[in-house]
Predict the structure.
Amino acid sequence: MHYISEKWRDILIFNNLDTHQKIWALEVDWFEEPNYRRGGWSGVSRIELQLPEGGTIGVFMKRQEDHVTPSFLHPFKGISTFLREFQQIKIFNDNGIPSLDVLYFENWQQEGHQRAVILTKELAGYIPLSSEEFQSGGKFVSSKKQKLKLFNQLAQFIQNMHSKNFQHNCFYLKHIFALPLENNEIDLVVIDLEKANKCIIKRKAIFRDLYTLNRHAGNWSIKDRLRFYQCYQNEKKLSKQSKELWREIAKRTKEKSKH
């Protein structure tokens, strides 16, 4: 499969990075050391593309070889994890769930190996919600008003995802990036979509994503977690059904924390 973004095509050509051969051959330091698992390897580098009108733009370049995941059509041979990631990014963006901006993707067979490359625009100015700035007392949640604004916007983001029957499956704060704007507004983007999928049972998707977020919510207090859950349910006073789901989330979180 081959994809090149029309809005980035001329810039990639200008930087001589418009084919997988050129991208694969580029000699650049690793931003993240290669991950050797799943029968192959996968690594990330950061590069800067020169703009024709002057200036540069940051881009993350990911390359992998024989780094595969099973799929419905390929349960044994598997498909490249980047192919799945690319497909999910495109699906999320097409459905109005902001994710990464893909400049280029391609996967191919070479000398008996499955290879893939993917280029995505750097989230310049964005900060993961796991950062200190978004933790209790941090720069962007230093008041109750700021914190409630964050909870409401994050809740609306997840509501939008679930309303379109998508389940992230790995919804940690470190996978949600925020760009602080004026009036305590933030622009949210979700990454790491390798395990995302369409959900068949919506309640199961809601439980999975909210439980994962609750369990890995950094130093959010119990009061913060409950307040966020109320924002997600759009209920100041939780309904019977909402209380039942909250108890399930709290129970699972407590059980997992013992391990």
Summary: The longest helix spans residues 144-163. The chain has a mean pLDDT of 92. DSSP finds seven helices and 13 strands in the chain.
